[in-house]
Write a structure and sequence with these properties.
This protein is α/β, with parallel strands linked by helices and about 325 residues long. The protein contains 12 helices and 13 strands.
């Protein structure tokens, strides 16, 4: 068995097409197909369902792909370990994030790059929680900033807390509750709301808190983008519930105000998620070390152009 055969099988599983897999591996299609057939002969099990075109992997093939990804990831980790021993980390960190945490990533990547000047970072900042778990298990990501995992699959990961996500009601200036330092979830539910899409984990958290507060919500607009929430509030016709971490980068935009949400006060722990493996990859270890050197929670409390505490209002629009 050759590592090249495993690379071909993983590429075929990912592309679901013989020609595209061959192109990705820089070989001819007959060479790729022949190498996979040779692997089937060596393992004595069919790996690919074939007819006139690719129809998917067999159950045996699906299991072998999991092993192949692990073997190839371990080889890559070993090579990176050797390079790190010679000259420090020089490879690429593949970092994912859920949309609500994407603005907090710069604090982490800056610290990582400062400590690893020869390394590069590739950020995927618009992933769902299920996608993050799947891509970590497939060795397509080194780490991700996301919610604390729960359920039966949580044991496959190591979670390092970074900060507690809390929520603010974002409205146009002069709208929402009277001049108070906060708003209740029940008051937020009475607004003309633009919220994240129901399939997103962050939205499911909001739905649970609204239900706990006895608020029945009927959002006028639903989107898969936190930036789009800000854009809709900017029109003056909508309000939204957004993570406070987004205010750290953009502040409160002109003509808007942000009120912390209470009754109840709800937070969700956000952290760094890596696949549990020994030894951990060089990239994951370096990122964990960078995270240990920063106080992300304190940094996210600093909102540009404001003093801390309570109701925060952006400058008047020009």
């Amino acid at each position: 068995m050759l590592l090249r055969q495993l690379e071909y099988l993983v590429a075929l599983s990912r592309t679901r097409h013989f020609a595209r897999a061959a192109e990705e591996c820089y070989v001819s299609q007959p060479a790729l197909s022949g190498a996979i057939r040779k692997l089937e002969e060596e393992l004595r099990v069919p790996l690919v369902r074939r007819s006139r075109k690719y129809e998917g992997l067999t159950p045996e093939g699906e299991r072998i792909v999991l092993w192949a990804r692990r073997i190839l990831a371990d080889r890559e980790a070993m090579e990176e370990e050797v390079r790190a021993l010679r000259s420090g980390m020089t490879g690429q960190l593949r970092l994912g994030s859920v949309p609500t945490a994407s603005t907090a990533l710069s604090l982490l990547t800056q610290a990582f790059c400062a400590g690893n000047p020869l390394a590069r970072v590739e950020v995927h900042a618009d992933l769902q929680t299920v996608d993050i778990a799947a891509r970590l298990k497939a060795y397509e990501l080194d780490a991700a900033v996301t919610y604390r995992p729960d359920g039966s699959g949580a044991d496959a990961f190591t979670f390092r807390p970074l900060y507690d996500e809390r929520f603010v009601l974002l409205t146009r200036a002069g709208a929402g509750p009277e001049r108070r330092a906060h708003a209740t979830w029940e008051e937020a539910g009475r607004q003309s709301l633009c919220l994240l899409h129901p399939r997103m984990f962050g939205r499911r958290i909001l739905d649970a808190v609204f239900a706990e507060a006895g608020a029945v919500i009927r959002p006028r607009v639903e989107t898969d983008s936190v930036a789009s929430l800000f854009a809709h509030v900017r029109t003056g016709h909508f309000a939204s519930v957004v993570p406070h971490a987004w205010l750290h980068v953009f502040g409160v935009p002109a003509g808007m105000r942000a009120l912390p949400l209470v009754e109840p006060v709800r937070t969700e722990q956000m952290g760094l998620l890596v696949l549990r493996r020994e030894p951990a990859s060089v990239a994951a270890r370096a990122l964990m070390a960078a995270a240990d050197g920063i106080d992300m929670a304190a940094a996210l409390e600093r909102i540009p152009g404001t003093t801390p505490a309570g109701d925060v209002e952006g400058p008047a629009p020009h």
